[in-house]
Amino acid sequence: MNPKIATSSLTLGILGGGQLGRMSAIAAAQLGIAVVIFTPEENSPASLVAKDTIVAPYNDKDALRRFSEMTDIISYEFENIPVKTVEYLNSLKSDNVFPDEKLLLISQDRIKEKTFLNDSGITTARWAHVNGLSDIQKCISDWNLNSFILKTARFGYDGKGQIKCDALSIENNTVLATFLDATKEQDIILEEVIPFSCEISIIAARDNEGKTSLYGPMLNAHKNHILDTTTVPSGVSKTVSERAVHAAMKIADAVNLRGVLTVELFVCEDETVLANEIAPRTHNSGHWTIDACAVSQFENHVRTACGMPVGSADRHSDAVMLNLIGDDVNTIAPYLTQKDTCVHLYGKTDIREGRKMGHITTLKPKTDD
Ligand SMILES: Nc1ncnc2c1ncn2[C@@H]1O[C@H](COP(=O)(O)OP(=O)(O)O)[C@@H](O)[C@H]1O
Ligand SMILES: [Mg+2]
């Protein structure tokens, strides 16, 4: 570790102003590290707790230069930051952005992501890059599918940019036709539907000495395609847990990780584990770590970006995290007086359907995994 970093007043730049950046900025403050947020959005959740904010588009070179001058090291809080932005920042100060653009590039595009996973020996759902009905028809007959999912290659989140279809009725399916029309300028993938028994995730944090801490596996339940609850311990078998950890470590090795990455996985009845998505960042399924671990995913994001040793990912309590989506934020009153319950709100004044407004973590004494 560079002792200068530990003792001097370090400033971390974070691209993106959402709740993930906010919680990293709070963790940074605890370590005496100041944060500057760069975001196109006024009054973003992260800017409310940061030392400074630059509000500008991600391609504004003058603003990016100022951001670079104001900060020692830069990270990002979500994956839809243009790779060119990261390349430009790295051209101003070399090797200044963590995780690097290789991981960012992979996780921005499902075609690159799944190709990378498969090339690294990690199994995913069967998938193909498709262009129109005839490609779809070919997958259906080659793989003998009853149903399938179409996903846009880029910019999907919380189930946006994807539809599930019945393979028997693709000819007169207006939902499918509308989707294909709306996405005709974009790359699309088709995936077989996995009848998974559950969904899990693993968060890996690796420092510049190559030491890795892993959170999870976490058990994730979704409602309307948005994460609803995360539970630890996950209750999955030792075999499943080992397979998930193995996949996460393989990915971290393959991208030469410095920073935090999350892998989302499907678990099948026969204990097969399939990788679904990689995120080059902290993750909603790791919010419980703030309250149930000595070092949270956010602190490890800050530590690994800033050249400090990664902290232990051990948990001292079992936890259930409940997301507050949209109007749910109006139901927090009972949680405020409930024992072993931690309420987190993101400072968003505008309540919108599907918007992540906060989360609740309920703690219980630790059991064995
Ligand atoms: N191939 C699949 N089979 C079954 N369910 C899927 C499949 N792909 C996605 N899903 C469901 O949709 C959710 C969102 O899909 P995902 O690929 O993670 O996209 P995003 O999180 O970017 O919206 C997953 O968490 C899972 O519940
Ligand atoms: Mg996902």
Characterization of the model:
The structure is a single chain. The chain contains 12 helices and 16 strands. The chain has 369 residues and is an alpha+beta fold. It folds into 3 domains: 3-97, Rossmann fold, CATH 3.40.50.20; 126-192, ATP-grasp fold, A domain (Dna Ligase, domain 1, 2-Layer Sandwich), CATH 3.30.1490.20; 198-365, ATP-grasp fold, B domain (D-amino Acid Aminotransferase, Chain A, domain 1, 2-Layer Sandwich), CATH 3.30.470.20. The mean pLDDT is 95. Bound molecules: adenosine-5'-diphosphate and magnesium ion (MG). Residues 125, 149, 156-159, 191, 193-194, 199, 222, 225, 264, 276-277 line the site of adenosine-5'-diphosphate (ADP).
Poorly predicted tracts of residues:
none
Q: How many distinct domains?
A: 3
Q: Name the helix and strand elements from N-terminus to C-terminus, one letter apiece.
A: HEHEEHEHHHEHEEHEEEEHEEHHEHEE
End-to-end C-alpha gap: 32 Å
Q: What is the CATH topology descriptor of the largest domain?
A: D-amino Acid Aminotransferase, Chain A, domain 1
CATH class of the largest domain: Alpha Beta
Number of DSSP strands?
Answer: 16
Per CATH, which architecture of the largest domain? 2-Layer Sandwich
Q: Bound compounds, please?
A: adenosine-5'-diphosphate, magnesium ion
Shape: globular
Coarse structural class: alpha+beta
- In percent, how much strand structure appears in the residues? 25-35%
DSSP helical segment count: 12
Please state how the strands of the largest beta sheet are arranged side by side: 13-12-9-10-11-14-16-15
Mean pLDDT across every amino acid position: 95
- What fraction, in percent, of the residue positions are helical? 25-40%
